[in-house]
UniProtKB/TrEMBL annotation:
Residues 39-51 have a biased composition (Polar residues). Residues 1-51 are annotated as: Disordered. This is Ohr family peroxiredoxin. Belongs to the OsmC/Ohr family. It comes from the Bacteria. It comes from Nocardioides deserti. Coiled coil: none annotated. InterPro entries: KH_dom-like_a/b, OHR, OsmC/Ohr_fam, OsmC/Ohrsf.
Length: 150
């Protein structure tokens, strides 16, 4: 394992090559991911786009962080899922940006305990840490007893 100048250890490095931008394709260095890309506004596009890939990655990472958080807090959540949504937005000044939403579903979890797990997961999740103070992220709890989100 490689150690950086900041003292952190690199646990894993993912790589991917993109060709043609939003009209091209991307392939991971491992070869396990190979996708055709198309613009989100292209109704005839057959590929995915960076926002869909980001939504999937953020949702999966957050769900894993929730499992770690639930273990650290010793709080059961039961079956849990996270839906990620990522918006591509254009600011008033013309620059592009992102907004994100995570919908957490854990119908068997106590709502107060679930909120504690979600709050800790938000501190642990590398995606949450990477976008904090740069991307607006809304995390909601969905379910009969989940109550309002944060």
């Amino acid at each position: 394992m490689e150690t950086s100048d900041q003292g952190s250890r690199v646990l894993y490095t993912a790589s991917a090559d993109a060709v043609g931008g939003r009209h091209g394709s991307a392939r991971s260095g491992s070869g396990r991911l190979e996708v055709e890309l198309s613009r989100p506004t292209n109704p005839r596009g057959t590929g995915t786009n960076p926002e869909e890939l980001s939504a999937a990655g953020y949702a999966a990472c957050f769900l894993s962080a929730m499992a770690v958080a639930a273990g650290q807090l010793a709080l059961p959540t039961g079956p849990t899922s996270v839906t990620g949504e990522v918006d591509l937005v254009q600011e008033l000044d013309g620059r592009y940006g992102l907004r994100a939403r995570l919908a957490v579903r854990a119908p068997e979890a106590d709502p107060v305990d679930l909120r504690r797990v979600v709050d800790l997961a938000d501190q642990l999740c590398p995606y949450s840490r990477a976008v904090r103070d740069n991307v607006d992220v809304e995390v909601t709890l969905v379910g009969a007893d989940a109550g309002a989100g944060a």
